[in-house]
Here is the input.
Amino acid sequence: MKRKLIIAGNWKMNKTALEAEGLVKDLVSNIGSVQKTDVVICPPFTALETVGRLIDGTPIALGAQNMHWEEKGAFTGEISADMLKALGCRYVILGHSERRQYFGETDEGVNKKLRAALEAGLQPIVCVGETLKEREARVTEKVLSDQLKGVFRNFAVEELGDVILAYEPVWAIGTGRTASPQQAAQVHRFIRGILGDLFTPHWAQGLRIQYGGSVKPENIRNLLAEVNIDGALVGGASLDNGPFARIVAVAEEMSR
Here is the structure.
């Protein structure tokens, strides 16, 4: 089954609105004419309005890095799906490993966020992945299986729409270490199989699964050459126009 490649840049806690303006103008100049690849930029909340304005009318889509599962209320410091929609967001990252590691997010919480995002009409990018300790203990498949069952608990396949999954081995995020294309492809294949069992094989075959973990222009081609890898969730390399534009250009060239 043919799946459209998707490249998403996760800026994390980087770039003021003013800094974002310069970067996005360069990106629009370099990749604003992409046709075969979905491209998403996920700046911090404070830069969403600025970035959204600059990419309006281009093929580049706006995404957020997180959201709360409630529509509104006494949740100081949080932001809702409707607030993101009002700023022009089409995508939202859910369950990133840094949210789990530093802020205590759980599969249960990601499950509630997933439902809220879908009900609001946002496209979720749901993250799963194992730590180095878990990989060395050879429990990667159990960890991922448990995460997937928790995140998608009580969902019917008809509710899931165009959910995107991102496999991000925690040991490869920001470390310079990258899962080999073969390692990544093996895990992507396993994830697709688990979701085929949880829902339907047909739906799982249509699901786009990104790889995230020290993605760079130097390794993106080999990663995308694997049939089960449908794009990338890019961290550090998305903070620089040159590397991110090169990653997108490779995806555009290799689009299936």
Remarks:
- The mean pLDDT is 95.
- The chain has one domain: 6-254.
- The beta strands are 6-10, 38-42, 60-64, 91-94, 123-128, 164-167, 208-211, 231-234.
